[in-house]
Design a protein that fits this description.
It comes from Streptomyces citrinus. The protein contains 14 helices and 14 strands. The chain is of the alpha/beta class and 411 residues long. Helix 4 (95-107) runs parallel beside helix 5 (120-132) and helix 10 packs parallel to helix 11. The two termini are 39 Å apart.
Length: 411
């Protein structure tokens, strides 16, 4: 009963906040009326990501990827009459904090779009808040299929939130892509699968497991860890005695970088393979030599190889921004750019219509442009139409791309 009352309270709060926000947006035309033509309207783009603590290396890459897009828009006067401002909020990789941040962003009448979050589990608690207020949300990193295609996505795809989009492709493709590479390229036949019990990690591990079995491989055992764990001695013993020639991990770098180190120190000379949540230089710095030979899959192709991204990379480095730009930085830039372009179709001469948020959502759905990460466009579910994926391996202390391509699931 406590859970039910709490859910009703949250929903009532969200609905009330959404209604107040729409009223606030509707008053902006009156506020701007009679202002001088050279006075610009401020439009806020929110960012939500873990900026401290767990997952912050990749979260900061999202924040500053979006910031460069906002700075470019202001420098180039992309939307005449509008000055864009970035407001970044730290969700600490916690769903409840993400929900609070979403409510705060909705309440700010100047916010016309949000980039983020990083974590799929956080997104599940933010989607309805934004949807109720007709506020567009574009994640550069969420990969759980159910976020766009519903809980029964494998049998009955159904979009729940028309305000939610992403520039990252889904685990439905990433898991199968990894399984195919593990079995057919690495020639691994027996795998031990571990996940962190979170939406992203558990979902990715499940899809890898299904793909590996379909390819002909054997899953010798499965296990779970908790986020924040640092002692994996019992798990390491299980893996070492299992006869597995590969460890697949579904989760973020915070735990896997410690797990692989303890595994190699115990004498188990098998690679750890994971998803884009592990794809960061921080993983290699923490694991040290133990990371050598480990693998990940990540969305898109290496950002350093994309001609359109060269200026972005140079700017990120020159500004000495913290975080890892190579994981989701370009995708955050493209997410922010999609919002900026949508605002440009809605806000004319600095005048913001009363239904601006809804119009921005509609404009994002129709967006199509060449971004840093490739073609930026969204299908009927809000998923990116860019299905490129890459396998990276640690070679001489650095992530090296070893295969890029696409993957088509059997069903």
């Amino acid at each position: 009963m406590i859970v039910r009352h709490r859910s009703l309270l949250i929903l009532t709060t969200v609905l009330t906040t959404g209604a107040l926000t729409l009223t606030a947006c509707g008053s902006r035309d009156d506020d701007k009326e009679g202002s001088s033509s050279d006075k610009k309207t401020t439009v806020v783009i929110g960012v939500d990501a873990p900026l401290t603590g767990a997952n912050s290396a990749t979260g900061l890459g999202i924040q500053y990827g979006a910031k460069i897009a906002v700075d470019d828009a202001n420098k180039n006067n992309t939307v005449p009459g509008v000055t864009f401002k970035l407001v970044a909020k730290d969700d600490k990789a916690q769903p409840a904090t993400g929900q609070q941040n979403a409510t705060a962003l909705v309440a700010d009448k100047d916010v016309l779009g949000v980039v983020g979050p990083l974590n799929s589990g956080v997104a599940t608690q933010m989607q309805q808040v934004f949807a109720t207020a007709n506020l567009v949300e574009i994640s550069p990193s969420n990969t759980a299929p159910e976020l766009t295609q519903g809980k029964n996505w494998q049998t009955d795809k159904k979009r729940a939130y028309k305000t939610y989009f992403r520039t990252a492709t889904t685990d439905a493709l990433q898991g199968g892509f990894a399984a195919d590479y593990a079995y057919n390229t690495l020639k691994k036949k027996k795998v031990f699968v571990v996940d962190d019990k979170q939406t992203y990690g558990a979902g990715l591990a499940k899809l890898f497991t299904a793909g590996f079995k379909d390819a002909g491989g054997k899953v010798v055992a499965t296990d779970h860890v908790n986020t924040g764990d640092r002692d994996f001695s019992t798990l390491v013993t299980k893996i070492k005695n299992s006869g597995a020639d590969l460890l697949y991990y579904g989760g973020q770098y915070d735990e896997s970088q410690v797990l692989t180190k303890q595994l190699k120190e115990a004498g188990a000379d098998i690679p750890l393979f994971g998803g884009d949540g592990m794809f960061t230089p921080t993983y290699i710095k923490t694991a040290g030599k133990a990371a050598e030979g480990d693998l990940v899959t990540s969305i898109g192709v290496p950002v350093d190889t994309l001609p359109a991204a060269k200026t972005f990379v140079d700017t990120y480095k020159a500004k000495k921004y913290p975080g890892d730009y190579g994981t989701y930085g370009a995708y955050a830039y493209d997410a922010a750019t999609a919002i900026i372009k949508a605002v440009g179709t809605v806000v004319k001469d600095g005048k913001v219509p009363s239904d601006a948020r809804q119009q921005v959502v509609d404009a994002v759905q129709k967006t199509s442009f060449d971004g840093l990460s490739g073609k930026v466009a969204f299908d009927e579910y809000g998923d990116t139409t860019n299905k490129q994926l890459t396998v990276y391996q640690v070679v001489k202390g650095e992530w090296k791309s070893v295969k890029s391509g696409t993957f088509e699931p059997k069903n």
